[in-house]
Amino acid sequence: MEIAVYIIEHNATVRQTAKKFGVSKSTVHKDLVDRLPMVNPGLASEARKILDINKSERHIRGGLATREKYLREHKRNSEQEKEATACPTWYRKVI
Which of 3, 35, 89, 92 has a 20 to 30 Å separation from 66 between CA atoms? Predict the structure, then answer.
């Protein structure tokens, strides 16, 4: 039940919840989908709504994460390229 309350209060994903409680994603999912409805159907319903929202947004978050990864990589490569083509400090002193 703690897991469901955490997901509802923090609008958390299964992965975030699993990390918080130190269990696997499979355990979190099984607890919410199979076990919780038998114990507390109302809480299970609320948690399920969050899971469904997260599932529907999953592809968007994945795309944003990939975009950020490539932007960071591009920035790092640009900085390395500037360093490689920069004029040595000893050369600047001579001129």
Answer: 3
Residue 61: what residue type?
R
Planar angle of CA 61, 57, 64, nearest 5 degrees: 15
Burial of residue 86 (number of CB atoms within 10 Å: 0-12, 13-18, 19+): exposed
Instruction: Give the DSSP letter of residue 86.
Output: S
> Is the alpha carbon torsion for 60, 66, 70, 72 positive or negative?
positive
Please answer whether residues 25 and 15 qualify as being in contact, where contact means their C-beta atoms are separated by less than 8 angstroms. yes
What's CA 92's distance to the chain center, in Å? 46
How far is residue 73's CA from residue 66's CA, in Å, rounded to a whole number?
11
Tens of pLDDT along 42-54?
999 999 999 898 8
User: Distance (Å, rounded) from C-alpha 74 to C-alpha 77?
Assistant: 5
Is the whole-model pTM more than 0.85? no
